[in-house]
Structures are given as structure tokens and as C-alpha cells.
Amino acid sequence: MIMFFSSPSDVKNNGHRRFFPYCHIILIPRGVSGHESGGITTFFARRFHHVTDHSCAIIMGSGDSTLSKIPNVEELMEETGFSPAHVVRLYERFQALDKSKKGQLSRKDFESIKELATNPIRDRIIGAFFAQGQEMVDFHTFVRILAHFRPVDKNRPKKANMQEPVNSRTSKLRFAFQLYDQDNDGKISRNELLQVLRTMLEMQVTDEQLESIADRTIQEADLDGDNAISFDEFRKSLEKVNIDHKMSIRFLR
Amino acid sequence: FFFLVPNRLYKYDIVVKNLERAWDGIMDESWDLTFAVVKAWFSVVVTFIMLPAMFGVSLGITELYMKILWATLRIQKERKKQEVLNASLANGIIQRDDGSMEQEIGELRRCRPKSLAGGEFTLSDIFYFSRKGIESIVEDEVTQRFSSEELASWNLLTRTNNNFHYISLRLTVIWGLGVAIRYCILLPLRITLAAIGLSWLVIGTTLVGLLPSSRMKNWLSELVHLMCYRICARALSATIHYHNKENKPRKGGICVANHTSPIDVVILANDGCYAMVGQVHGGLMGVLQRSMVKSCPHVWFERSEMKDRHLVTTRLRNHVADKEKLPILIFPEGTCINNTSVMMFKKGSFEIGGRIYPVTIKYDPQFGDAFWNSGKYNMVSYLLRMMTSWAIVCNVWYLPAVERQEGEDAVHFANRVKSAIARQGGLEDLSWDGGLKRAKVKDTYKEQQQKKYSSMIVGEDSSD
């Protein structure tokens, strides 16, 4: 990477005024955090530390050029808990899916994933990425949705006033709830349940069978008798399920 | 002062005349020089490369070249030993569970207080499908097969430099040198050889075609074909290792191989003669096809004929039945795959009958990527990329002949052959259709999943 930076001629350091040339060209090897590149970086850092103390800090680390292409990447990592390496891999996948290089994904890009086409609830999963009325998904939204499927962080300390982490048990349950509850009214009505069953089973079962299954399910889960399943009832009926294991994707490295 | 001026002008005139004369001299000499260089170039090419190639003799130049390349790349590889990023590229981004649908959903349901032996729907079933869906979004088996394989360490070609950014000055210098060598020395050499090879093919086969049918004609035609393919292989700096030559395809058989690029034909034909099968093209390809057919029978189909499966099968069957004709070469995948896996074999080739000789072709991507991404590159730019790579290194394994067993249907037979080929080459055996490169996934796959799930919910008796 060739770095151009200009320093204003009146930068103040240690109370002295220094005049520097307007442009420095520094060839800084990166990509490997071996001592070779580290040595050269510190060499330059020492020479120009009064100018480059901000710039040199971000140069270390592997894959940082891809990382630097992503806007607000620190905020994204903080929010979702993905490591830099994971974010880079997800970014590459995002770019691979974004065939027309728009920087955003449309429904069609998701639909072109061949393996996804065999999933009975494909359209609902794709729909989970698109917020109400939106037609495109940018990288941040993409990662945020995928973060629901990160394994639960067991060692995360509970801070006061902290928002529910994206991959907590409750968040995962809410994600699944929203796959059922398409109109977002907070309840899974009998109709919505019928719709899901119809999508998952299509021609394989008769209408009567579907209705009896839906009725039975609501009967079991509905506790307050309103003939619909609210989020709390949903959570209660699944309290024994090992959600962390079943709704998590193990990312390598 | 008065005297000086005309004197100066006079001298100036003479100087200009002298310069002009000198310039003409240089121009003449440089033309002679150019001709001399071109002549020397051609004689070098002919003596050192073409003639040995034609007669199957190796002068050891290619081996030396490969040794130098190996040494250079190994030096570069050692410097990158600290690079941990490599490991993940080969292994993928997520770890997938291989449990079946029944297993996974059963586990989900086990946690419920009620026992569900007969099968029933539960709200937790959706977890399985949503997780599978998200896994597909993050990484899917099929789409990655239609783009070039990622390398673990850089091989000094710009085109493979995706994740390896600027590393060191020394490497950049070597890379620059590599570019100069590849584009200025190797490329013209290879283009010359390819041109010679192809024109010799056309001329030679036309000449042989004038002879009457006889044993002599067959022998000559085989010789001509072999020579041309050998020259073409040299034109790509192809280093090919053939294994198990005793299983080489014989006359009256069908040779079946995995498909990575149009160069596969050159690779295989370097060691034996085959009858090609394909569509009639126009242009240069058409000229080649027409002349090849004159010396020995190949099977070329018109575009309209290709649609009629019955016609195709009949013609191929007739060809195979004639024991004097060369074995036909077929690529049952139907499209180019990136050499990390073998995709579904179309059953048409396996319905013809006759003995099948499976062949595995595995390229070494370290020296040059042979995969033709037909969506991204057209034929000409693909060939240019081939000719500016370091070399094409590949291994060819001839597998023992197989025949269709009693009562075995073509699809099962095709899968059997496919597994054998994949196993030999260390490739992954996928049952996805290579045609998915361009086509949509058929609904039958989704219906299969739905059927499986429904049998879990309502029991076996109600699903049909």
C-alpha cells in the first residue's frame, strides 16, 4: 500500500512548531504481521511519529485493506460481535452475491443462490433481510441479520443499560417468531400459521390436515385463550429447546 | 562576422546531408537486423521445440523451466508461512452439520415435554429450515464451483492476487520480471507454436484426406493428429503426467472425463487418438472441424440435430458399433466446472452402450488456472490467459473400463462412474447439475424437501 498524506505545516507537537514537506510517500508492507513488516513499520513510525501517530496505528494486521473498504466497520463489529476475519469473509461473500456490483443486494441476488432454492421457506428467510418497504440490503443489514445466528457469547459480562445482544437467546427466538408473524402485529394468528404450513408442505398434505395441525398447535401453545400465539407464549412453549445449538452457525476461525 | 555566417550555413548543410545518409544506413541495417532476428527466432522454434514435439521426443527444456518455476515459487511460499489466512480459504467459512432432516428435527422435538412418536408439527421445526437457509446464504456448495479456485499461496500471477496485497519489494520485483518474461518472451513463442500447430493440422489432415481408405491412411491420420496436438500442448507449456496407461481407451469404446476447459481435448489427445463429438461451428473452428473429418471420422452435429436426443444416440451408437473407428470422447457434465468437484453426469452418454473408459483430469492450479469461466471470458481472452500463465500442469489417470450391469439404469451407472472419477482425482462428488451455471434450480428439489418434511408431520401413509 502506498500512503499519501499531507501534513499541515503548522502542526504543533511538544509545543514546537515544525515545518514538514507537504507530501510523504511511504511504502508500508502489510498483510503479514511478521516481524519483517513490523520492523519496517516501526522504523517509519519512529521517524515520522510526530505526524503519523494516527495513520500508522491502523496499518498493522492482516486483511486490513478489505476492512478499511467497509464503512463503519468498528461499529459493526462492536454491535454484532463478529471478529475482523469473519467480517472480511462475509464482505467477500456479499460481493460475490452482488453480481451487478451495486454495493447492495436485491431479492434476485438472494434468489440466485442455488442451494437456497431447495429450502421450502426460502422466501420468508429472504424476506427477513428486507425491512418493511425496502428493496435493497446493504452490507450492514446483511451482517446484522446474520449475527442472529452467531453462537451465544457465554462470557459476555452484563453491562447495565446494555441493549440485548443480537445473538442472545431472546433475539434468536424473536427472529424465528418474525418468520411466522409476517404482518408484525406481535401475534401468530391461525391464518399466519396456516400460511407457513402451506409454504412448508405445499402439495404434500390436504387442507383438512393442515387445519387440524394448525388448530392443535395453537391449542397447545395458547395460554391466554385469544386463539393466537404471542411472543411470550412462543417463548414459553420452546423453553426447553436448546436454541443456542440449533439456531447457531459455527464460523470457522 | 560577415565571413562566419555563410561559412556556418555551408557547414550546416553538409552536416544535415551526412545525418540523412547515416539515418538511411541505419534504417536499412535495422530492417536487415529484424529479418535476421525473425529468421533466427523461427529456426530456434522449429529445431528446439516443434521438431522434438512432433516426434514425441523431449529435449528437457520444459523440465528445466518447470524446475526453475518450482524453485522460485517455493522461495516465495516459505516467506508466507506466517500467513494464517490461507487455511480458511480452503476450508470454507462455516462448519456445517451433516445430520439429516429427520435427525435434526427429531433432536429439536426431543426437548418438548410431550412425546411425539407419530409425528406432528411443532413451532421449533422452523429453526431447522431457517438455519439451513442462512447457511446457504453464507456459503453454498454450488455457486463456488463456477468460479476459479482460490490458491493457498500466490503464484506470481496478477489474476490470482485477490487476497495477497502488497507484501514486499522483493516479491514485486520478481513479479515484474515474471510479467516481462511471460508477455514478451513466452507469449509470442506460444502464439507462434499454436499457429504452426493449427495450420499443420488443417494442411496435414486435408492431405491425408486425399488418400483412399486404407490402413496406411488411418496410420497417417493418427500420426498427423498426434503431431499437431503435441505442438499445441507445447504451445501451452503443458506438462502432463499420464497414469495407468494400460487402461487407455481402445477402439469401439467411449471415453468419459470430467470437464474443466476446452484444453482438456488437447491434454487427452496428446496421448491417443479420439473421435471428437460436438456441435458444428463457424469460423476458424469450422475450418478445423471440416478438415479433421476428412482424415478420420469425427461426429459433428448441427445445432438442430442436437435437440433430437434419439438421433444423437443413434449416431453415436453406430459409431461405437464400428470396431474400426476411434473411441469417442465425451464430457458428460456438459459444462466447465472449476476442477474442485465433479458435478452430475448427464445420462445420455451412458445409454449408448459399449464400454466406458473413465478418465480423470486434475490440473495443478499453482502454475496456471485452466478453468474456463465462460460467463466471464470469451474464448479468445481465455486462450490469451492460458498462454500468459506460467504453465499448465496436470495429471491424467486412466481408470479401468466399466460396463453397464444387468438391470442397472443409466442414472445409477452414471453416478457410479462419476464417483470413481471423483475418488481418483481427489475431487468432491456432487450431485448438482452443472447446467445450474445458467439455469434455475428445478422445483423438484424443493418438492423433495417438502415431501420429506411432510412425512415427518403426518406420517408415511398420507404423503404421495
TrEMBL record, chain A:
GO molecular function: calcium ion binding
Principal subcellular localisation of the protein: membrane
InterPro entries with a match to the protein in the record: Calcineurin_B_homologous, EF-hand-dom_pair, EF_Hand_1_Ca_BS, EF_hand_dom
Record-linked PROSITE patterns: EF_HAND_1, EF_HAND_2
Keyword terms, alphabetized: Calcium, Cell membrane, Cytoplasm, Lipoprotein, Membrane, Metal-binding, Myristate, Nucleus, Phosphoprotein, Protein transport, Repeat, Transport
Xref: Pfam families: EF-hand_7
Cellular component, GO annotation: cytoplasm; nucleus; plasma membrane
Intracellular or extracellular location(s): Cell membrane; Cytoplasm; Nucleus
Every EF-hand domain range: 168-203, 209-244
Nucleus recorded as keyword: yes
SMART domains: EFh
BP GO terms, sorted: protein transport
Origin superkingdom: Eukaryota
Family of this protein: Belongs to the calcineurin regulatory subunit family. CHP subfamily.
Name the UniProt record assigns to this protein: Calcineurin-like EF-hand protein 2
Native organism: Scleropages formosus
Gene: chp2
UniProtKB/TrEMBL annotation, chain B:
SUPFAM superfamilies: Glycerol-3-phosphate (1)-acyltransferase
GO annotations of cellular component type: endoplasmic reticulum membrane
GO MF annotation list: glycerol-3-phosphate O-acyltransferase activity
Pathway(s) the chain acts in: Glycerolipid metabolism; triacylglycerol biosynthesis; Phospholipid metabolism; CDP-diacylglycerol biosynthesis; CDP-diacylglycerol from sn-glycerol 3-phosphate: step 1/3; Lipid metabolism
Keyword Cell membrane belongs to the record: no
Domain Phospholipid/glycerol acyltransferase: 253-364
Residue stretches spanning the membrane: 40-66, 167-185, 191-211
CDD domains, sorted: LPLAT_LPCAT1-like
PANTHER family recorded: GLYCEROL-3-PHOSPHATE ACYLTRANSFERASE 3 (PTHR23063:SF10), PHOSPHOLIPID ACYLTRANSFERASE (PTHR23063)
Sequence similarity: Belongs to the 1-acyl-sn-glycerol-3-phosphate acyltransferase family.
Protein name, as recorded: 1-acylglycerol-3-phosphate O-acyltransferase 9, like
Organism of provenance: Scleropages formosus (Asian bonytongue)
Gene name of this polypeptide: GPAT3
